[in-house]
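Comment thread on ticket #2218

A.B. wrote:
> Attaching the input chain for the structure job we discussed in standup.
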Amino acid sequence: QFVIVVVDSTDRERISVTKEELYKMLAHEASKSWDLKKAGLLIFANKQDVKECMTVAEISQFLKLTSIKDHQWHIQACCALTGEG
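C.D. wrote:
> Ran it. Output below, let me know if you need it in another format.
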């Protein structure tokens, strides 16, 4: 099982909403309401073709992905228009 999160790499204002929702979901999962204990976390950093977008490293740092210890996670740069990533 995987939880998939798609991040708009150009939207610096709403990345905080993404972070808040991600950690709410993980906290909700911790309450055992969901059966996602072993689910991996896949984050797609979309719109990497746009100049001045956030890099994968910036998104990872902002979302504090290294603090997530209970789930394997991976962040992948991508572009939905070209199919890259």
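A.B. wrote:
> Thanks. Noting for the ticket: The first helix runs from residue 15 to 30.
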